[in-house]
Amino acid sequence: MAQVVPDSLSLKNKKSQVGEMFDDISPRYDLLNRVLSMGIDRGWRKKVVSILRRENSKTILDVATGTGDLAIAIAKLPDVKITGVDISEGMLTVGRKKIENKNLQKIITLSWGDSENLDFADNSFDAITVAFGVRNFENLEKGLAEMYRVLKPDGIAIVLEFSQPQNFIFKNIYYLYFNFVLPNIGKLVSKNINAYSYLPKSVKEFPFGEKFVGILNKQNFKETSCTPLTFGICSIYTGRK
User: Fold this and answer.
1) What pLDDT, on a 0 to 100 scale, did the predictor assign at position 159?
2) Cα dihedral angle (115, 116, 117, 122), rounded to 10 degrees?
3) Least confident of 26-30, 61-65, 236-240
4) Do the domain assignments include residue 197?
5) Maximum Cα interatomic distance, the chain, rounded to a whole number of Å
6) For the residues 55-67, what does the mean pLDDT come to?
7) What's the pLDDT score for residue 166?
8) Tell me, what CATH number does 113's domain have?
9) How many folded domains does the chain comprise?
10) What range defines the domain where residue 122 resides?
11) Does residue 209 lie in a domain region?
């Protein structure tokens, strides 16, 4: 998999670039997310929550939590404790305000954290979730290995990530939107030249579908699966420790 970075001219590593990029767009991230996804992303997150409900997971780590959208959705489940980590303090600041406004401070804790060096003991969480974050890992296999390490035996990892539609007609519509409409709207609203051109590039290079399932298997996850959503725009991947 080719290494895709927000700014190919920068000498900084991917992790630093991604953190700075999300710091920069964090004040407008939620607005852009709703507009550019046309709200469909809410339904995708609900499917993740449904899996956690069936699993009866209580202690949950949300990796690359961003502004906490998935953590907040999960908080509707009974008796859960959610820890969210992210490398962007800007995104975490926005997330903490949202959590405070919803009075969820006793359920959700957000803190700075590197997905490839998680500051938690082995076998700490019933479940681990990542929504639209694994593409941003500098070392994908290392990040997944860390998730496996801190997951309890028989615990479940759930990854929600963009993929690529395979239907010919929808694939072309998706390509036009993702490569031309989305970057231009993103640049206009966020004022960040790189952020929304990085998104389609990172999706294009991401090993979606069975390739990603194979990477999960390589990291010792078992009972792995891939479920495409909305004509294959994104997929839910699951794996058990």
Assistant:
1) 98
2) 80
3) 26-30
4) yes
5) 47
6) 97
7) 84
8) 3.40.50.150
9) 1
10) 14-240
11) yes
Q: Which helix (H) or strand (E) holds 85?
A: strand 81-86
Which token pair is 149? Answer: 């390490």
Provide the whole-model pTM. 0.94
So what's the pLDDT on residue 170?
Answer: 81
Contact 206, 130 (CB under 8 A): no
Contact between residue 33 and residue 105 where contact means Cβ atoms under 8 Å apart: no
pLDDT above 90: percentage of residues in the chain: 66
Decide: residue 108, CB within 10 A, 0-12 exposed, 13-18 middle, 19+ buried. buried
CB 17, CB 199: distance < 8 Å = no
Q: How confident is the model at residue 214 (pLDDT cuts 50, 70, 90)?
A: very high
Dihedral (CA of 87, 91, 94, 99) sign: negative
Is residue 4, in this structure, part of any structural domain at all? no
- What's the DSSP call for residue 98? H
Residue 8 lies in a domain: no
Report phi then psi at 149, rounded to 5: -60, -45
